[in-house]
Amino acid sequence: MGQEAKCVVRVGRRKLEGTALLETSEVLLRGDVRLKLPFAGMKSVTAKEGVLKVVTDDATYAFELGPLAAKWLEKIKNPKPVIDKLGVKPGLSIAVIGLENPAFLRQVKERAAAVTTGRVPKGSHLVFFGATAVPALGKLATIEKSIARDGGIWVVWPKGRKEFTEDHVRAAAKKSGLVDVKVVAFSATHSALKLVIPLARR
Fold first, then answer.
1. Superfamily of domain 82-201
2. pTM (2 decimals)?
3. Cα of 191 vs its chain's centroid, Å
4. Helix (H, G, I), strand (E, B) or coil at 107
5. CA dist., res. 178 & res. 151, Å (int)
6. 138: which DSSP letter?
């Protein structure tokens, strides 16, 4: 997740209240009414006097964000690549398991120092762990033993499934002695939650 803010959204004469979230490729509103505005569907985006105005084919949405309006405009017009949000940097040792995404794997290999698929070498800085069902999360405790003490595990799972949600991932992390620190929209279909070893155990 990029940023979130409590705000009022005006849509014509309607006034909506809730929490606006700036994701990797969309703006969301969570409240009595839920909105989902993908960047790709925005005809125009402007920011003036603390109001972010988003025009789509269906309507014009005015998000009253204050100082965040200009910052969100910049992020919408120049979105940060997902690989950057995931913290993949030159020099890191990366492991990818259970994740079928050739484009992502190619990007990781182009940037990281070492990339291993199918297993987690000792001392891996980041692990991308694709999971499609709750039982798979039982592997977290084993993966944790192989990562660098200041490393992290990104759990990647399909969006929109009630039987497997972010709450399930957090519960499994806690059971394995890990804490979550960041959530990112991995793609249009998947979410990712970063887990790390608590400072007291490093």
1. Vaccinia Virus protein VP39 (3.40.50.150)
2. 0.70
3. 6
4. helix
5. 11
6. G
What is the C-alpha separation between 77 and 69, in angstroms, rounded?
12
Which helix (H) or strand (E) covers residue 7, if one does?
strand 3-11
Q: Is there a contact between 53 and 46 (Cβ–Cβ < 8 Å)?
A: yes
CA atoms within 13 A on the CB side of 141: 8
What pLDDT band is residue 1 in, cutting at 50, 70 and 90? very low
Residues 6+ apart with CB under 8 A from 81: none
What DSSP string describes 32-83? SS-EEEEGGG-SEEEEETTEEEEE-SS-EEEEE-TTHHHHHHHHHHSPPPHH
**pLDDT (tens digit per residue) in 78-115:** 887 889 989 999 999 999 999 988 999 999 999 999 99
Q: Where are the domains of the chain?
A: 3-77, 82-201
Q: How far apart are CA 179 and CA 37, in angstroms?
A: 30
Confidence tier at 2 by pLDDT (50, 70, 90):
low
Domain 3-77 class, CATH top level: mainly beta
Which residues fall within 8 angstroms of residue 162, CB to CB, at 6 or more apart? none
Q: Do domains 3-77 and 82-201 have the same CATH topology?
A: no
